[in-house]
C-alpha cells in the first residue's frame, strides 16, 4: 500500500527540490499558498495586497536556506507575511511614531479616500466653530488636542500656572460644547474628545 504524503511533507519535498535548483518546484510551492496570502493581506491592506504578497515571496526566496523545518512551511510563510505586514505599516507611520500592534487596529492605521474626505469635512466644520471662540480658547484647545501639548507645556506657552491652565481648558471645552450644541453637533463623536475634561 502506497502511503499518501501529507501536505506539509509535500511542501518539504518541493522545498528540497527548490533548494537543489528546481525553480519550478519553488513556483509550485508558492502557488499552493498564493490565494491564502492574498486573503491575509487583502483584509488589512486593500489595494496593496499583491505587492505585499510579492514582498513576502521575495523574502522567502532570499531566506530559503534558513528555514529549518521545525514548523510547517505554511506556518513559516505566514510568519514572514506578518513581519512584512508590520514593516509595511511602520514605514507608513509618521516620523518617530511608535506602533503597538497589540492595541492599534487597521482602522487606526489606514485612511481610505472616503474616510479621509469625511474626516476633512469634520475637521473643517470643527475649525469653523473653533474660530468663533476667543482666540486664547481656540489656541489652547488646538495646542492641547492637535499638538498634544500637556498642561505643563501649555502653562509655559501661556505663561500661566498649571492650575490656571486646567481652569482655562475646562472653560474652553464648555464654550466649545455650547457652540456645538447650538449648531446641532453636540453629540458628534468627532467633537466629543475636545469637549470632555481630561481624566
Provide keyphrases for this structure.
Arc Repressor Mutant, subunit A, single chain, Rna Polymerase Sigma Factor, Chain: A, 2 domains, 199 residues, mainly alpha
What report would you give on this structure?
The protein has 199 residues and is an all-alpha fold. It has two domains: 101 residues, Orthogonal Bundle (Rna Polymerase Sigma Factor, Chain: A); 85 residues, Arc Repressor Mutant, subunit A (Orthogonal Bundle). Helices cover 66% and strands 0% of the residues. The protein is built from ten helices and no strands. It is elongated.
- What is the overall shape? elongated
The number of helical segments is 10
CATH class membership of the largest domain = Mainly Alpha
User: Which CATH architecture of the largest domain is right?
Assistant: Orthogonal Bundle
H and E order: HHHHHHHHHH
Number of β-strand runs: 0
Mean pLDDT, to the nearest integer, reads: 80
What fraction of residues sit in β-strands?
under 5%
